[in-house]
Every structure is written in C-alpha cells, then in structure tokens.
Amino acid sequence: MEMEYKDTSRRGKFIIVLGVVLAVAAGGAAFYLINQAQQLAGSGTAPKVTVVVAARAIAARKPIEDGDLLVRTDVPIDPTNAQGIVTEKTKLLGRILAVPALEGQLVTTNMLASSASGGQFSVLQAGETVVANSPYWRAVSLNVPDDRAVGGLLQPNETVDIFVTATVNVPQALLDQGKYYTDKSTKITYQSVPILAKAGNMYIVRVSLAVAEEITHLQASGTAQFSMALRPDEDTRAVDATGLGETTNVIIQRYGLPVPLTYPPGKGGSTSPVPTPFPSPAPAASAPSSSASPAPSSAP
C-alpha cells in the first residue's frame, strides 16, 4: 500500500515567516500611532490656556495674598483639569481656601470656602456640615486695637482667648459703706475662639449664638473693652477661670504696690503703709476645666 508524502518542513517555515511579517506589521502600526500622537501633542492640538496656580503652599482659612499666586500660560487643558480654573489672580486675592493648596497646584473655584462673589470666610470649618443637633455657630465682629491684640499681629486661622474689661458701677448705698467703689474689672471670658478674618482693628470670630449675643450687647453698651491673647496651636485646654479676675485693688494687694501718699501731708498726717517685701502668692491653680458662666466658646 502506497503512502502519500507530505512536506511538513515547508509548511512550518511558511508559518514562521507569516508570524514574523505580522509582528513587523504590528510594530510598525504601533510606532506610527505613537508618532502620530506625539506629533498631535507637539502641534498644539490640545487647547492651552492661562491658569492661576499656587506659587507656594497656601494654608486653609488664610486670605490669599498676591505672593501666594502665580500665573502660568500655555497650560494644556483637557476634561480632567478644565473645571473651575481661574485665569486672573485678582479674582482670588483676599479669598479664603477651604482646604490647603500645594505649591504648583491649580487653584480652582471649588477650593474656596465661599462660592459667593466677595465671600471672605466660611463660618463652618472645612468638611463641617449642619445637622439637627449642630451647634449654632455665628460670626461676629470685635473692635480690638493693636495694643490689646498682640500688637496687631494676630491673623486669621489663629485661636485666641478674649478678655472683657467692663466698668462696674457701684450703687450709692454701697459707696456710702466705704467698701466698694466704681472702677473697671477685667476677666478672661471666652476661650479658644478662632479668628475667621481680619480687617484693620476689626476681627471676625466664630462663637456660639449665645456668646455672639453677649458680645453684641457689650459693644453696644459702650462700657466694655475687649482684649485678645494668642493661644499656642497645641494648647486646647480649657482654663478654670472661677478664681481669676482682676481689679486695681486686687493687684495692689497681691503684689504689695505702695499706696500713693499726699505730699506734703494733709491734716490727717497719716503715713504710707509699708509695702510687702515680696509679692503675695497668686491663687492656687485648679485643674483645667470649663470657665465659669458664661461658658467659653470653642471650636468643635
């Protein structure tokens, strides 16, 4: 019986050659597509615009200054970065970012704490929302001269304690008893108050609705003054203020300040009391807790 002879070697060589040809064709096609893409990118097919970026790191809740921003031209824009871009620095100056911006990062409108034109700050913190049991936060302004505001160096995003100095009017019946007299009294009243914005001597602070009402009344009365003390960022403790509060007489007695003597002596001929050689000890500090009523405001 005769058997048909098949030349399998020629068929194998043909398959190998065909594979090489297809591989070369695929490589050529890939090279062509990559080259075309590079040429399209180099030819400026993607639209390029002028955008505003952060010239340096910008902290949240700090008014944007001119030195914080940089304008870059011919920046390629595509659907991934075209939303909310700003083309002029003037549109961002003085605005407040809700989140920090990194150096070189696009500063877009969705990063602003307030979307309204002219919005300078946000009462709510970044990511904070209002729900049924949220505190009733309000922004209120305080007029505090530089000499009572750490030399005017206080800035937004810092936290302060607020002192109130009020005139205490003593009724005539108590005046006649010779124990009390009308004078000013000072005490730390509101603790851990964040500064939202500043304009000259006007400070915009965030407090509860009840404290905002108190501050509004004290300013309207015209008999109260406010002072601010800067807190370290790391110190979030509440100070027990029940043993604090100052009047001129309290300070005189505590530190043994000499009482002024009429000279030359009058008819009484009294002599000046001898001052104590060393200041008397300050009241013992209690464990940190909330201040006496009214309760201090604090950030959540």
The largest sheet has its strands arranged as 3-6-5-4-7
Indicate the proportion of strand residues. 15-25%
Number of helices: 4
Q: What would the average pLDDT be, to the nearest integer?
A: 79
SSE class: alpha+beta
Spatial separation of the terminal alpha carbons: 100 Å
Alpha carbon gyration radius: 36 Å
Number of strands: 7
Using the alpha-carbon principal axes, give the shape: rod-shaped
Poorly predicted runs of 5 or more residues = 285-300
Major sheet description: 5 strands, antiparallel
Order of helices and strands: HEEEEHEEHEH
Helix content class: 10-25%
Describe what you observe in this structure.
By secondary structure, this protein is of the alpha+beta class. Among the domains are: 48-111, Alpha-Beta Complex (Type Iii Antifreeze Protein Isoform Hplc 12), CATH 3.90.1210.10; 137-255, no CATH class. It is built from four helices and seven strands, in the order αββββαββαβα. It has a five-stranded antiparallel sheet, with helices on one face. A two-stranded antiparallel sheet has the order 1-2. A hairpin with a 2-residue loop joins strand 5 and strand 6. The termini are far apart. The relative contact order is 0.11. The model is unreliable at 285-300 (pLDDT under 50).
Structure summary:
The protein is α+β, with helices and mostly antiparallel strands.
